[in-house]
Amino acid sequence: MKNSRKIKPGQLERRENAIGYLFILPWLIGILVLVLWPIVQSFGYSLNKIRLLPQGMAKLYIGFENYSQIFLKDPDFIMGLESYLLETLIAVPVIVAFSLIIAMLLNQKISCRGIFRMIFFLPIIIASGPVMQQLADQEAASIPMMNVTMIEQLLDEYLPRVLAVSITSVFSNMITLLWYSGVQILIFLAALQKIDTSLYEAAKMDGGSKWECFWKITLPTVKPMILLNVVYTVIFMSNNEQNGLIVLIYDTMLSATGGYGYASAMAWLYSVIESAIVIFFAVLIMGRKDVYERRAKKYQREQKKEKRLEKKIRKRGEQNERNYAKQKAKQQRKRAKKSA
Questions:
Q1: Does the pLDDT value for residue 335 go beyond 50?
Q2: What CATH number is attached to the domain comprising 207?
Q3: Count of CB atoms situated within 10 Å of the CB of 215
Q4: pLDDT for res 3
Q5: Count of domains forming the chain
Q6: Is residue 64 part of a domain?
Q7: Model confidence over 203-255: pLDDT tens digits?
Q8: 256 in a domain, yes or no?
Q9: 323 class by beta-carbon count within 10 Å (0-12 exposed, 13-18 middle, 19+ buried)
Q10: pLDDT at 29
Q11: According to the 3-state scheme, what is the secondary structure of the chain?
Q12: Is 300 helix (H, G, I), strand (E, B) or coil?
């Protein structure tokens, strides 16, 4: 009988890892060629003044002059950026809160629950960019009977002009914003379905109201999903076809005064600001720990401290017992010697 071949330690794991890397190799190649290389190339473009000539692309290295020119000599980008930031800070909480409320309603035991879930997610599939652009051009994406001019004038009396325009823009496009909340609803719904129903039953037995169940059970459980939905919403709004900054960067790239270099600098500044917004929301949501989480961790620390103290006392008692047994054995040996 032939001896079976012995597998060296770690050989099977390395083989499985190699097979796994082989499966994701097309994705890695796509990331390197279609994502990472264009990112590096665009940063190189942003440091040059680029003109398209019949002979090809002409580059003139100017360092960070494009970036300084954006802040010092381009009021359109600054105004568009201010408007976009204010709209994002207002629209993201509205979309996430709406998605959580709808997900909680769809998680209830109601008739035709599957149909309602399909209705809320269907716009994500059928409402493409051109469709929504046509709806916006025909003013079909705004709230009916909403006098935008009157609301803007009313807000303009109490708020700065930029903030009043941003708030009006968000609420005038509320239907469009809520139309795109299907993915967030789906993520919240998946998180809600993983909550153990025994927690709610125990809370009801202890006399907890629905409001207390929401704050003490539901919200802490879906907290990581809130951050995920915030990140998704910010990224979605940054790449939306109706985003004025995206249109400005595209027009600058094709203009005679801007070009690829200046537009690349705009895109890089825009990406850095987007990352800052995501970090801001992440710190705001996950930075401060929940009061119940702090109490739970404090209780765990106290339990560990008590266990360590009990272990120390037990070891000390065992040591005392061993010492007592040694002394007793020593006394017995002495008595045995005397009797002998």
A1: yes
A2: 1.10.3720.10
A3: 15
A4: 53
A5: 1
A6: no
A7: 888 887 888 888 888 888 888 888 888 888 888 888 776 777 888 888 888 88
A8: yes
A9: exposed
A10: 92
A11: CCCCCCCCCCHHHHHHHHHHHHHHHHHHHHHHHHHHHHHHHHHHHHCEEEEEECCEEEEEECCCHHHHHHHHHCHHHHHHHHHHHHHHHHHHHHHHHHHHHHHHHHCCCCCCHHHHHHHHHHHHHHCCHHHHHHHHHCCCCCCCCCCHHHHHHHHHHHCCHHHHHHHHHHHHCHHHHHHCCHHHHHHHHHHHHCCCHHHHHHHHHCCCCHHHHHHHHHHHHHHHHHHHHHHHHHHHHHCCCCCHHHHHHHHHHHCCCCHHHHHHHHHHHHHHHHHHHHHHHHHHHHCCCCHHHHHHHHHHHHHHHHHHHHHHHHHHHHHHHHHHHHHHHHHHHHHHHHHC
A12: helix
- Quote the pLDDT of residue 274: 85
From CA 235, how far away is CA 247, in angstroms rounded?
16
Place of tokens 């719904």: 189
Helix (H) or strand (E) holding 18: helix 11-31
Cα–Cα dist 173/95, whole Å:
12
68 lies in some domain: no
What number is the average pLDDT over the span 59-63? 85
The whole-number pLDDT of residue 170 equals 64
Average pLDDT of the chain, as a whole number? 78
Range of the domain at 79: 74-288
Structure pTM? 0.66
In one-letter notation, the amino acid at residue 230 is V
Q: Which whole-number Å values give the CA distances from 287 to 17, 106, 233, in the listed order?
A: 35, 29, 19
Q: Is residue 2 part of a domain?
A: no
